[in-house]
Amino acid sequence: MLRLKILASAVPLAVAALFARGEFSTGPRACIEIAGTSTRIAPLSWQAQRHVSFTSDISRATVRVQISDSAEAADFTVIDDVDTAEADACEGHAQQLLVAISRDASASDPVIYLSRDGPADYRIFVPSKTFSPLDAATLIVGAHGNRHRLEAASLKG
To answer: 148-151 long-range contacts, Cβ below 8 Å, gap at least 24?
Structure first.
């Protein structure tokens, strides 16, 4: 009976430790490094220092991200399945920024319109099995942390 009580008290502690760390798996997570700060998608939304949201209504967007068909035309390319030392390029940085996708955007959060059409503030190329264009757009906009007006977007196609 005592063993059962010890086990019953240890399970909630293990679950709490998992939530405190914020990770359920140790698999690769998308990251981007800009100016000595690595930006990652937060494992849990409440851990994020910065939030972004997405819209399908271009009139609500503050940032437009175009999905590109080639790496040459992209500002940001996500490459996964890398087996070199660069696979952990974002590990060990003193400054780390966590970004999360929010359903309820605040007025200061960037609102992203993701499409295959231009004009765009950022262009992404994501030939990945692990990361989606949504992840890539979250990282690039979250890392820059600024809001663009679509009127100022590049007219390149």
So the answer is: 148/62, 148/63, 148/64, 148/121, 149/62, 150/58, 150/61, 150/62, 150/64, 150/113, 150/119, 150/121
Sign of CA dihedral 7, 13, 16, 18: negative
Low-confidence residues of the chain: pLDDT under 50: 15, 17-26, 85, 149-157
| Angle, alpha carbons 21-78-49 (nearest 5°) | 35
Distances (CA, A) of 5 to 57, 100, 136: 54, 38, 46
47, 40 in Cβ contact below 8 A? no
| 11-25 residue pLDDT tens | 555 545 444 444 444
β pairing state of 37-41 and 31-34: antiparallel
Q: Would you give the DSSP letter of residue 89?
A: T
Q: Name the strand (E) or helix (H) holding 39.
A: strand 37-41
Tokens of 122: 């950022």
| Residue recorded with tokens 């503030």 | 121
